[in-house]
Amino acid sequence: MKQAKIPIKFYNTLTRKKEIFVPIRSSQVKMYTCGPTVYWYQHIGNLRTYIFSDILRKVLEYNKYKVKQIINVTDVGHLTSDADEGEDKIEKAAKKEHKSAKEIANHYLDIFKDDLKKLNISSPKKYTKATEHIKEQIELKKKLERKEYTYKTSDGIYFNSKKFKNYGILARLNIKELKAGKRISLGEKKNKTDFALWKFSSPNEKRQQEWSSPWGIGFPGWHIECSAMSMKYLGNHFDIHTGGEDHIPIHHTNEIAQSEAATGKKFVNYWLHGAFLLYNKEKISKSKGGLYTISELKKLGYEPLVYRYMCLQTKYRKPLNFTLESLEAAKTSYERIKNKIIEIKKQTHKGNDLTKTYESQFAKAINNDLNMPQALQVFHSALDDFEFSPKFKLSLLKNFDSVLGLGIKDFKEEKTLIPEEIKKLVKEREALRKLKEFAQADILRQRILEKGYEVSDTQKGPKLTKKT
To the nearest whole number, what is the mean pLDDT of the chain? Predict the structure, then answer.
């Protein structure tokens, strides 16, 4: 199906403005998505970011681009503090669960992949593990060393941020106003914004994951992993880098510095960041609450795609306030879509082919910086348009769903085994209706409802559905 030729516009964090997307190669887009640190379950706040990057990829593919997406897996080097201090999160989890670091990483990576599948998030071209790219990280450090961007301290090799001219441009950092504190510990650093490229293993503790290097036995810093792996698979200069907005001031800022210092080239053309998920209007956290997993939501009666639908209702750059009430509203809307799609599959009336009209509106919405709330409005308008031929409508909605990812092609009417007691009540109610005894019929309808079933009247007779 030919798509409307509408320019794609993205809000580029680097320039702080919406720009027309122009890929480096005309037909292919290279895209890097900051992946999980696999020491624990990914909560729904983390997963909102992956839904956003998936929507981005699907929009590009809807516009006929071939997307080469890489998602990294941090299975070493991410410390409990962004100030290059604290324990390695993987090592800490391994001690806590009495398992090897590799077992921990593989276990939580498998759960992460399963969560993505449940959310209809497309698999990347490759998942790249930090532990499988130590060689590339060491080579990148050597380049930086040759260009005199590094220095040694008692605990590792650091990047001298003051030597990189445009340090902090992504986050618009005012370096002079930064104060050493909780997130910025000076210690032996030459500058407050310097960061570790390689950390030495402590002589007082044997790590499970450590490697030999020209500088001593140790492990890579968190930031160097993404630069080394993205450049290996996507090249020194590629199209799009995504992640959560919390990565802007430190992780992505440091990626740009070390990558461009090493290559002398622009690292990435477009930086896109998803906003936080809030709980009770505050960022979700252990102290504030809201750290649900997809499995926990399912136990509460909410399918993963209901959460995806909820995320689509808010623009990716806006904070999304999560409550179980709002999730319940999303569930109601999602179930309505499901019932309407099932109904459309049965419809036989003729109508107009309004494909081009709705297709143009949809493309305009998604290509305008992934405006999914507007795209959903178009979807619902097409869904409810009785003048739109059911045959062409269903085909178009499936096409729209290649972006939305709601799984409508799999919607099927569920066959429910109706108890004889309920069948008898429905039959008695229908008899009363034929006698125009509507008050008595309504009493039976309420009794049916109380027993967990809902009856609706159609041209073909009463329709019974089980309440969810």
Answer: 92
The pLDDT of residue 233 is 98
Res 285: pLDDT: 78
Q: How far apart are CA 396 and CA 408, in angstroms?
A: 11
Helix (H) or strand (E) holding 282: strand 282-283
Residue 60 confidence (pLDDT): 98
Report how far residue 211's alpha carbon sits from residue 201's, in angstroms, rounded to the nearest whole number. 9
> How far is it, in rounded angstroms, from Cα 458 to Cα 380?
22
- pTM score of the predicted model: 0.87
Q: CB 214: neighbour CB atoms within 10 A?
A: 10
DSSP string of 323-351?
Answer: -HHHHHHHHHHHHHHHHHHHHHHH-----
Paired sense of beta strands 320-322 and 277-279, if any: parallel
d(CA 130, CA 231): 13
- At residue 15, φ and ψ (nearest 5 deg) are -105, -10
Residue 413: C-alpha distances to residues 67, 179, 409 (Å): 35, 60, 12
Residue 9 three-state SS: strand
Residue 274 vs residues 113, 320, 387, 466: alpha-carbon distances, Å: 20, 10, 38, 38
Cα(293)–Cα(285) distance, rounded to whole angstroms?
13
State the first-to-last Cα distance of the chain, in angstroms, to the nearest integer: 36
Contact 455, 429 (CB under 8 A): yes
